[in-house]
Structures are given as C-alpha cells and as structure tokens.
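Board notes (copied after class):
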Amino acid sequence: MANTAGLVVPCNAAVAWEAGKPLVIQRIEVAPPQTMEVRIKVKYTSPCHTDVYFWEAKGQTPLFPRIFGHEAAGIVESVGEGVTDLQPGDHVLPVFTGECGYCAHCKSEESNMCELLRINADRGVMIGDGKTRFSVNGEPIYHFLGTSTFSEYTVVHSGCLAKINPSAPLDKVCILSCGISTCGPIPKKGSSVAVFGLGAVGLAAAVGAKIAGVSRIIGVDLNPGRFEEAKKFGVTTFVNPKDYDRPVQEELEVEKFITDRVPFSQINKAFDYMWKSEGLRCVVAMDE
C-alpha cells in the first residue's frame, strides 16, 4: 500500500444518488482522517438488509447522495491525531456501534451503548467536525452508520474499529463485523446461531433464537462464569476464545454463512440477492 498519509485519496465507490436506484460505481475523493479518525482500505464488504432498508428510504427522511455499507474488513492506511491504539497496516473490522472508552456507558460492565458513538442512521457526517470525508467533484457525499464500506477507502472514528489478528482471512471474517455478531434476520428452524457477548442483549438474542426453533445456539464470551446462566436462556454451546488455538472464524464455521461472492463491479447483484432473500451473505471483493 503506497504512502498516502495526509493526502486526499481518489478511489472507486458505490454511490447511492437516489433512493431505490442502482448504486453507481464512480471515482470519488476521500479526505485524510482528522482527530481520532482512521482511514482504512476496505478489502471485503458484505451488503446487509440494513443497507437495503436505508437505501429504499421508505418512510424516512432521505439522505443522499450516500455511501452505504457497514459490514467489512480492511487494513489501516493512516491515522489521525490522537489515535494511539491503531497504526498503518493493522487489520480491522468496522463496527457501527462503537465505544469511545471514556463515557459512563463504556466504563460500565452493564452496557456498551456509548454516549458518543452509538448507532445513528440519520447522521451522515463525521462526529468530530460535522463534515463528510467523501466528495465527487467538490460535492459532498454522506456517510452511513459511521462506516460507509462500499468505498475502496473510508474514514472511521477510531472507536468504531476492532483490531483483529492479521492471519485471519479478511474475505471470511468481514461478516463478523455485523452479520453474525448481531443476528439481524430471524433464524430458521433447525439452523445454528452465534451470540457474541452473553450480557442482557446477547441473552435476549438467544431467547429469540430458541423461540424460532434454532437447534444450536453458540454463546461466545470471555467470561466462563456466564455459561451456566446462559443455558437458562437457550444457549447450548459455549465458546471462550481464550480456550482455543484455532481462530474464532474456524470455530464458528463462518464460511458456511457465505453463500455468494461477487467483484466490486457487481455490487448491485449483491443487493439483488438481499432484495430477493437469496442466500445468507454475499461477500464483495473490493479489489476485483
């Protein structure tokens, strides 16, 4: 990766100019990261039903033009002032509900609803200065969920990135940033579900999966003391990442969730899969 730190980076992005209209792949400019921000090169992304919902913009206040995408994996290209926990070359997963690490919610063991970085689908700009980092011929393009991964480069608040082991295959673990970890769609009877974090929200997800008739509910948590309690909510298998030499994506058989793969030039086909409810997850290769 060339040294482009501090420079405006031109790249391709799938831009949504209007609600419900096909995304347009075109050249955009991505500004350098500002204080507590990180610019990453997105390697793989995967469309989610949340992207489709806000792209349709039914019953919403439309915010266009916009770059969607929030489920991805990439590599840090450069960091802004104040970022100390990440550096160029780090492999990361963007997360749409971040943690600043300083507010009362972040410091509490009972909640991760950060006061600063909690999910906000209506905000199309960076939280630091209220400006966007994307533009086309000088015209600003709005962000989505603080991530906007349908772009070869994107700028994200440092609190919305999770550093991962560089040996993890980015084309597989990209779906961990949302798809598997949030279990948005209603699971089918007899299927398997992984729940990351066995706090109140995670256990609620387990209950929902149990009601849906899921045959195997995998609880992932660093605290083994939570497993016995989790059994009461339907969790059948407990995984503590500290106990395994194998990467978590192998333990959870992540590859089974990936049913389709397309190059970036065919990202609208991935949207069609979502629209028609065909398959589980379609991974988009940004370099293809």
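Comment from the instructor: DSSP finds eight helices and 14 strands in the chain. The two ends are 16 Å apart (CA to CA).
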